[in-house]
Amino acid sequence: MNETQKLGEFGLIELIKDNFKAPEGVIGIGDDCAVIPQESGLETVVSTDMLIEGVHFLREDITPFQLGWKSAAVNFSDIAAMGALPVGSFLAIALPEFDGDRDEWASEFIRGYKLISDRYEFPLLGGDTTSSKGGISICVTVMGKCDKGRAKLRSAAKAGQLICVTGTLGDSALGLDAILRRNAGDQDLPFAADNLIERHYKPVPRINEGLVLVDTDGVGAMMDISDGVASDLRHILEESHCDAAVDMSRLPLSMESFAYCQRLRLPAEKFAVCGGEDYELLFTVDPDAEPDLDVPHTVIGRILPYSEGTIHWENVPESLDASTLEGFRHF
User: Fold this and answer.
1) What is the pLDDT of residues 281-329, one digit of tens each?
2) What is the crossing angle of helices 102-119 and 64-82, to 10°?
3) Which of 46, 57, 13, 69 is nearest to 141 (CA)?
4) Which residues pair with 47 in a beta bridge?
5) What is the pLDDT of residues 97-123, one digit of tens each?
6) 3-class state of residue 261 by DSSP
7) Helices assigned H by DSSP within the chain
8) Is 315 left (phi over 0), alpha (psi -120 to 50) or beta?
9) Could you tell me the CA-to-CA distances from 308 to 99, 237, 244 in Å, in that order?
């Protein structure tokens, strides 16, 4: 396979998807969770994610408590994206030899994992532990439940619907920017850097918001923002066979991100749409239902009839090139 034939992340997903068809009645690869119908009239939603040292985190820059919290939080966010109730999680972790007390590290990791699990009544039900010859490897599987046919899917967007997000965008990516700058020796960062770093290390899954949205008439597609709006919205467009328009002048930015970017002359809007790991909810809703949504949110665009399955960026700042607006990709 030559350079032009490389699969890339999405190509690899499609290869796997093409080779493993879900049984009739089951929704498999393509959403935040698989959806498995149960005889009781409920559906079980299941998702698995990994966190790999050197890819998703740097051991020297995150405490084991923070890593335990984040490992659970990013997976709980998938349950939130489906509008499901938590059932339980499974943790598999591989640990290498440490320069230090590995038992103390493990205790702090579990303390962080337990704190957020208790907050959302998300019990740890099992898993696996093993040694590693390389770095730390963490794999979490989560399960949730919802009434049959109620799970929010990426395929449910319709032309004319509004595109909304919870919370603010870009904080986590800017937190990572601050971490990397400090590692490079820059100790004169804006005061807001500490709050942005905390946002990066301790994301908050929108479980409660997801439960409200799943019971709200007019809400269409929904997913969480893990790789950035520029990437994640394309998943919805692909599954729903639509286009989208996003108004960059309407992106919700926190005061911290605005102050940080203003001080360092960074394009806050680019971090907001291209930066990953915000773990906010991205969803579509009918225009007449949006004013009555009982969840804090911001309208950032609208769904368009299918043309090329692309995002049309509006009100792009002069300092940005719309063709460069892409979210994070692993390959």
Assistant:
1) 999 999 999 999 999 999 999 999 999 889 999 999 998 988 888 765 6
2) 30
3) 46
4) 142
5) 887 788 889 999 999 999 999 999 998
6) helix
7) 8-19, 64-82, 102-119, 171-183, 193-201, 207-214, 229-240, 255-264, 268-274
8) left
9) 52, 9, 10
